[in-house]
Design brief:
The chain has eleven helices and 14 strands. The chain is an alpha/beta fold.
Length: about 300
């Protein structure tokens, strides 16, 4: 039976990973900075990953260490840069340090983001596509990808990185508030119009959290998943306007358009849609969920 530690177990994707790993009868040790588990896991271990003395209290004699704890955001990172570097980068380096010093054989599993890519209009981006970090958060992710490569080269710490587009869905409840889809949903369900910048023509890859977790878990079982990076794609490579229209139709609200604020435009990456050929070669990857069906069933 596989055994895993999941950092960020109270967070959006981390919480779902614990759920889906447990469904596969894997032994999971959930951990986060909060004193208590949001899902009341009996073996939950509160750990502040920015504190190495706390990290080393955990036994890394496991198969996988999911490093899904961290801070997200765009412009907020410029104001809270110390927090973003401390949590997102030092946190991972503390995990890597304990891994190295304890001679752990665990695989580090790390979530990266669409925001590391230099957006290209209507181009499906492969893992080797040009990179461009426009925010502190995006730079955190690029830096962490490099740390993982360095520790693999120098200390034989194995890793797998999964780059994620726009996640959506929630198996726990309908109190969904994460990211782009959460913004659209919360506006629409409260009978408020949805506002889009520009014409809403920017395209994203939208992937249900169940499909994200399934892709991660199944890919890690393959021999070719060690020390490499995968895009997690989907069949929903849509414009923001297309998705907003689905919410507007479901909840009978309108869509408003507004000019781009200068601060938002400066950190906008452009189209970021994923070429997922690599992960499809690794596993028989087929998305179970479609965003139009998910919205219709809300």
């Amino acid at each position: 039976m596989k055994k895993s530690i999941v950092f960020g177990a109270n967070g959006y994707i981390g919480r779902h990973l614990v759920y889906y790993l447990s469904k596969q009868k894997q032994t999971v040790i959930p951990s986060d900075i909060s004193a208590k588990s949001i899902d009341h896991h009996q073996n939950y271990t509160p750990i502040d990953i920015t504190n190495l003395n706390q990290v080393i209290q955990l036994d890394f004699d496991v198969d996988y260490i999911y490093c899904f704890g961290g801070l997200t955001g765009t412009n907020v990172g410029f104001d809270k840069y110390k927090d973003f570097v401390e949590v997102n980068e030092i946190g991972l380096l503390n995990v890597l340090t304990h891994h190295k010093n304890s001679n752990s054989k665990a695989r580090i599993v790390f979530p990266s983001t669409r925001l590391v890519y230099k957006g290209q209009k209507d181009v499906f981006l492969t893992e080797e596509a040009p990179k461009e970090a426009l925010t502190i958060y995006a730079q955190n992710k690029l830096s962490c990808e490099e740390y993982l490569k360095q520790y693999a080269t120098n200390f034989n710490v194995d890793y797998t990185v999964f780059r994620i587009g726009v996640p959506y869905g929630n198996v726990f409840d309908k109190n969904f508030s994460y990211g782009t889809v959460g913004f659209f949903y919360n506006k629409a369900k409260n009978n408020e119009n949805i506002t889009l910048f520009g014409k809403g023509e920017l395209r994203r890859t939208f992937t249900h959290v169940e499909d994200i977790c399934s892709a991660i878990i199944e890919t890690l079982k393959t021999a070719d998943s060690k020390n490499t990076i995968f895009n997690i794609g989907s069949n929903d490579n849509l414009s923001l306007l297309e998705v907003a229209k689905l919410f507007a139709a479901k909840f009978k609200v309108s869509i408003n358009f507004s000019e781009w604020p200068e601060s938002a435009l400066k950190v906008e990456s452009g189209d970021t849609i994923f070429d997922d050929t690599k992960i499809k070669k690794a596993i028989p990857y087929h998305c179970k969920n479609a965003i139009n069906n998910w919205i219709e069933n809300l």
